[in-house]
Amino acid sequence: MNQTTGDRVDSDRTDWALSVAGDGSAFGRVFDRHAPRIRRHAFGLVPTPTDADDVVAVTFLEAWRRRDHVRFVDGSLLPWLLVTATNTAHNVTRASTRHRRFLARFPVDDPAPDPADGYTDGDAVSAMRGLALADQRVLTLCVVEGLSEREAAAALGVPPGTVKSRLHRAKARLHQRYTRTADPLGGAL
């Protein structure tokens, strides 16, 4: 079934209202509509591909938990979900790092290699992961997902001017991190 963008936006509001009223199928439709995009978004922000699945699950759990407080941007739930997924990915990454540090304190007789250590995701994604959470949020919404500064501002709950300045600074920091990551010797490429 082909839907126009306006139909999808109306569907978000309608399905969300139905799900809050107790219609589990409506929540399933919201999930089916947005989960693949949330997973693609999370995939670039977490250490392993399986963590991306966890981010999707936690994002929709948070949506349900905070169902009376979600924000629609021009009738769409997607920007709110993307911000929540970015926050969740940040938490998953921090927890994974803490867990690995904890395990590293114990002696290991025969260390088995961690498959996640061999996982490479490219210099650009590594550079993005190394940015502050606020930078990741604004870059994700405006650059990766193509939202306007006004839409990103509504999703983040800040004025559009704040998004514009954050986006400018985040792009500069990403460029600096990317060029440093792409060229480990620090010379001109």
Backbone structural class? mainly alpha
Number of helices: 8
Number of strands: 0
Query: What series of H and E elements makes up the topology?
Result: HHHHHHHH
What is the radius of gyration? 19 Å
For the biggest sheet, the summary is: none
Description:
This protein is mainly alpha-helical and 189 residues long. The protein is built from eight helices and no strands. The chain is flat. It starts with a helix and ends in a 7-residue tail after the last helix. The model is unreliable at 1-5 (pLDDT under 50).
The gist of it:
The protein is 69% helix and 0% strand.
Question: What are its keywords?
Answer:
189 residues, mainly alpha, 8 helices, flat, disordered N terminus
Write the layout of secondary structure elements.
Blueprint: H1 5-20, H2 24-43, H3 49-65, H4 78-104, H5 123-129, H6 133-144, H7 149-156, H8 160-182
Helix pairs in contact: 1-2, 2-3, 2-4, 3-4, 4-6, 5-8, 6-7, 6-8, 7-8
